[in-house]
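Morning, I've got a small favour to ask if you have a moment. I'm working through a protein record and want to make sense of it properly. The fold is given in discrete form, as structure tokens running alongside the sequence. Can you walk me through what the tokens say about the fold? Thanks so much in advance, here it is:
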Amino acid sequence: MAEEQQQTVYLTEEGLQELEEELHHLKHTERPRVSEEIAEARAKGDLSENAEYDAAKEEQGKLEARINKLEDTLARARVVDESEVDRSKAYILSNVRVKNLSSDTEHTYTLVSEQEADLSEGKISVNSPVGEGLLGSAEGDEVEVDVPAGTVTFKVLEIGFAVAAQWLPIENRKPAIANRSVGARGASCAMGRWPSSPRW
């Protein structure tokens, strides 16, 4: 647990902004609202049989847990600097077009942090089996990935860089993310050093 808490969390600029906005909303809108609901429920009298009070306290507990989680994540967060990425290989922020050699189908994935993963948008975590398998691969590589259904072999067809939700081939890539650190200023971006335990 201590190792997990100290680990740097790599985020895109967009992902960092979303977490900061969520934290601001929870602290300045939701927290006062829940506190007011607790006060109103307490004013109604006997707390031992006050369902509204119990519900508000339960919501407060979940809210504070989420706030603590966000604060911890942001304290360890670092925005990825594109200049530090080997653009010939798949790393975080890469768009990777692959061919599943087993099913003869093509897929495009964007490798992102666990916090930004959204399979419906093709964004997969670098900690997931597929993301971890593709991490560090180059165009033309064949990568075997162990998934719950068995072993799948992907051939890497093309690697681009995710900028403003656009596909940029290697020759057209330009820096788009400033070197901004949060809670890990001055730390080097150790690309490819991700937790070994696979997750979906």
Q: What stands out?
A: The beta strands are 9-11, 77-79, 94-100, 105-112, 123-125, 142-147, 150-163, 166-168.
